[in-house]
Amino acid sequence: MTDQELVHHIIELLDESRNCKLTGCTMLYDGEERTPFHKNFLVSPDRINSDLGYVRGNIQLVCQFANFFKGGRYSDAVFQQLLEHIRRAAPTD
Fold this sequence. Notes:
Elements: H1 3-16, E1 43-47, E2 59-63, H2 64-70, H3 76-89
Antiparallel strand pairs: 1-2
C-alpha cells in the first residue's frame, strides 16, 4: 500500500467509526481542543497483527494510549483481558 493509499484507507476507517476499536472510547482528531490528558484519546492507527505491516485488513483505529500500551508487545486479546480486569477492579459508587 502506498502512503497515499494508506491515508485514504485510514480516512475510510474514520468514516466508519470514531470509537476506539479496543476501548470503545470516543477518539479525538488532531487539532481538536484538548488538555494534555485528552491527547491520550487521539486517533492512532494500530496493526492488528504486529508481525504484518500497515496493510488493508490489518489496520484498526485505536486511542493513542491503547496503541502505546500495546506497542507491538500485546495482542488485542491480552489488552482486552487487561481492560476487563481494570473494569472489574474499579470501585462503583
